[in-house]
Every structure is written in structure tokens, then in C-alpha cells.
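Board notes (copied after class):
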Amino acid sequence: MTSGLPRSLEHPLPAGLRDLLPEEAQSRRALAQRVQSRFAAFGYRLVTPPVFELADVVERGLGTLSSNDVLRFVEPESGEVCVLRPDMTPQIARIVATRLRDHAPPFRLAYEGTVVRRRIGRAKKHRQIPQVGVELCGVAGPEADLELLELAADVLREVGLERFTIDVSDAGIVRELLHGVAAEHAEDVTRALGRKDEAQLSELTEGLATRDALLALVRLHGGREALVEAVALLASTRAAEPAKRLLALFDAAVARGLSSHLTADAGEVRGFAYYTGTIFSIYAKGPGEPIGAGGRYDELLSRFGAPMPAIGLGLDLDALGWARKDAGMGESAPDGVVVVGAPDDPRLRMLRERSLVAVALSTRELATSYARSWRFAAVWDGTSLFDPVTNAPLGKSASVTSVDEAFLQTLAVLRSASRGD
């Protein structure tokens, strides 16, 4: 059975894109605000890059993404080829190199926005990704890496997650073990290593001087003991230094109180050709994929004419929201009050002055129905405040315009619930 509507109205969105209706949109906005509040506490200033830019500017800093992931179009006014941003890090790099070139480093910048990527098959669900993140530019060494690990943990605790894992690695390990290997062959090896496919890896590394070390990386993941073993195993290879660097970072993070959230993988290959040192992925129960990731990319800024070390962290708001929901925190609390009265009812102003959402409807029946449909926390009929779902009383007022202390306390609770306090 069909609705009789034109197909364009039945299915108005391309695959991988979706609308957010009020409840979900409010929940995501509140989540982003909580994350940004912690970014700000660590000194990160918010910047807002445009949704599209010239292709040759963005693509020079794509990093781990392929040019096939980019949605291109010709800008009608200029005839220039532009792209919808597939990643915000190149945009931050451009801002640092141009708009902020007169500012003193280090640059601590935060961002928030949606990135759009071209995808095929099942991956189409990832075409539109709401992100928040930070970039720390101009600071080399482990202190910057530690700052971002601490910030990631701080943010996740702020949004209510206690059970999460930050998996750390160092891109230099695999890069150094594949030094001198032809690019195409190196890609095959890293794909097998990424899948932990020891059989294929054994075949692909036949004849390589670092074969034994590469095969060992398949199992060198877990806790500190895996890194200690990696340092010993790689001591006589080019990867000795990044292995020691990773162990030192792990120990420093433990000293900062992150031990219960840390794991390590000496054989992580994500973005090994782009990242220059520390890399990390963040996991929590629910999404089945990282809720965030980051790493050091010391060579990126030089592509924009401003060479300096840099490290970044990005969080997927949808995945983060999923993890919170899995932990029992996904639903936003009902908020606001529907007043039984006229549009000029003085109670509306009183409620709004207390930072509560407030609307008016003329009858108790209309107000209750509206409050249920749009998830308002309460209906105020002039003498009492009640729950629109259960009709249970929430508080009493002395009159239409005056309230007692208990009623004010009820309003404070509603305000806290609406803010997610």
C-alpha cells in the first residue's frame, strides 16, 4: 500500500543523512555544550570554520581520508572546485596558518560541526558525522599528548560515562618497521596487521628483515606488559625509539590517574602514514566502533606554510550519545511548563525569568494533551502544578500570580532537569 505521495516526499533524504527531531536535537545540543564546557576549562577557544572550502586547500590536509571520500562541486559564482568538509582538522590547520599567524603559540582551538563524507555500501550510514574536537598546535613532546588523553577522560566523565577505554599506540612503530618497503606492499602488510591476520601477514612479510617483529605485533596489545615486551623485542630495530616513547606515555598516563581506562596496541596501523607519533582511539559499550580518536600529526601544518607540531582529538557526537544511552543516560528529561491560560498570562514571564520553557493553552485538556505530546514536565492550571502523564501533583501555588517556597523549589528541580544537571 502506498501513501499516494510523490516518491521525493516519501523519501526526501539521500542515504546516510537524517533529520533530528526536537527531542534528539535538544539532547545532542546539550551534549555538545557539556563537552565544549570542558574544552573551555582546559583553555581551548572555539572556532567555526565554513561548511565548504576550496578543494585544493582541504585536500592537502586530508590525512587518513581518501580523496574518494570527498563530495565535490563547482561553486557557481567562481567556477572553483569546492568540497563539503570531510574533516575539520585541515580547516583548523588553515586557520592557524593564516588567520591566527600573529598570535603566540601554542594554539588551543576547539570546534564543533558536521562533516560529510562520500560512502558506498553499508558505510553510507557514516556520511554525515556530527563532531566536536580540539587541536593543540605548537607543542611537541609527551606533555601535549598527555593533555589530550586527560582531556578525553575528563570529557567522558563529564557526560556521565565511567566505563570507557582509551587505546594508545604510536604510529612510528609500524612506519619504522616498514621503512624502505614499497608503498603498495606496505599497504598490504598494514591491512593484514590491522585485521590481526597472522596467516596473511606471515605470507606478506616473507623475506622482510623485520618479519619477526611485524608478526609479533599481532599479539602485542593489552596492558603495560605488552609494551614492555614490545620494547624488548624491538630494541635492535628502527622502531626501538617509538616503542620506548609509547611505554613512557603509558606510564605517564597511569601516573595521571588514567590506569583504569588505558589499553595499548603496539601494532595499531590506523593512519600510520599520516600520524607521526601518538595515536589513540576511545571506546565505550554500545556503538561497536570508536566514539573518538586522535593523534599527533607534526607534518600537517607545514602543508599550510606554518610548520609546527600538533595533536588533535575528535569525538563523534552520535556515537557518544549512543554510549550514554547504553549506559542508561540517553533520554533527555522532560522540561518546561504548559500554563492553562491566555498568551499574556503573567505566569509565562515568571517562568521564563527562571529560565524555564513556558507556553500557554486555553484549557486544561488542551494543555495536558500538548504537554504529553511535546514532553513538557508539568502543567500549571492556576492552583496546582501536575505531571501531564500521571496527573500526579507536583506542587501548589497560593494564586495565579504568587507562589510559595515549595512551589519555587519544584520549579528549580524542573529547571535542573531541563539542563541535565
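Comment from the instructor: The chain has a mean pLDDT of 89. The chain has three domains: 9-163+285-332, 165-279, 337-419.
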